[in-house]
Amino acid sequence: MRIRVINPNTTAAMTDKIGTAALHVARPGTEIIAVNPLSGPVSIESHFDEAVAAIGVCEEIRAGEQAGTDAYVIACFGDPGLYAARELTRAPVIGIAEAAFHMASLIATRFSIVTTLGRTGIIAERLLDEYGMAVRCRKVRAAEIPVLELEHNPRAAFERIVAESLRAKAEDNIGAIVLGCGGMANLTDAISAAVGLPVVEGVTAAVALAEAMVSLKLQTSKFGDLDTPPAKAFVGQFSHFSR
């Protein structure tokens, strides 16, 4: 089984960390291909960042189709380009936010999300509504750390995430924490030990779900809005999308 794990930002060190976390939970025989676009934002912290990153996600899906890929993971908590990516393949495409929400709902009746910045927390709230999970989430909390602090100042970032997770445990009446950034993929065990709650992280959750879907022979439906996009001409820098 071959799973392409797409970090939608262009920070290669974060891609390596995400790939390592994915490999840690993958079944024997599962091949993890961790990639990131060559062009795009170095981190994703806004709607604009997501819009630009979605093009890179689609490029990586197209590359994965040529390489023969069984499933895809979009390793950014905003799930940028998720539906567009699903249009481009029959293979399962799983966003890490959607995966984390579902996994957390299976182990706790209520969870809180601890993410990076307050503005990205608003994006997470929109996804909770879109995925029908708002009723299961007590609160979206921000540690107020830029995404790249997870790379440049990991100890301080870890301490801020733990502190916010402890506040969630004390105040939110929850049973689990969801980590709201793909760059936190390597922190699950350490945060869980420090906080004393189950901690769900989306990259590893998405890999496990992708393996299950491939084993069940479940593919993206091509009946309705996720059918292959209509053939048409694209111009300018997107002319290579023409079909």
pLDDT averaged over residues = 97
The percent range for strand residues is 5-15%
- Give the N-to-C terminal Cα separation: 29 Å
Largest beta sheet, briefly?
4 strands, parallel
Protein name: Hydantoin racemase
Pfam families: Asp_Glu_race
InterPro entries: Asp/Glu/hydantoin_racemase (IPR015942), Hydantoin_racemase-like (IPR052186), Iso_Racemase_Enz_sf (IPR053714)
Family: Belongs to the HyuE racemase family.
Summarize the structure.
By secondary structure, the chain is α/β, with parallel strands linked by helices. It has two domains: 124 residues, Rossmann fold, CATH 3.40.50; 105 residues, Rossmann fold (3-Layer(aba) Sandwich). 45% of the residues lie in helices and 15% in strands.
Task: Characterise the protein shown here.
Its EC number is 5.1.99.5. InterPro entries: Asp/Glu/hydantoin_racemase (IPR015942), Hydantoin_racemase-like (IPR052186), Iso_Racemase_Enz_sf (IPR053714). It comes from Amantichitinum ursilacus. Belongs to the HyuE racemase family. GO terms for molecular function: amino-acid racemase activity; hydantoin racemase activity. With 243 residues, the protein is of the alpha/beta class. The protein has two domains: 2-96 and 205-233, Rossmann fold (3-Layer(aba) Sandwich), CATH 3.40.50; 97-201, Rossmann fold (3-Layer(aba) Sandwich). It has helices spanning 12-25, 47-67, 82-87, 96-107, 118-130, 149-152, 154-171, 188-195, 202-215; strands at 2-6, 31-35, 71-74, 93-95, 111-115, 137-142, 176-180, 199-201. The strands form two sheets. A four-stranded parallel beta sheet has the order 2-1-3-4, with helices on both faces. Strands 6-5-7-8 form a four-stranded parallel beta sheet, with helices on both faces. Helix 1 links the parallel strand 1 and strand 2. The longest helix is centred in the N-terminal third of the chain and has 21 residues, at 47-67.
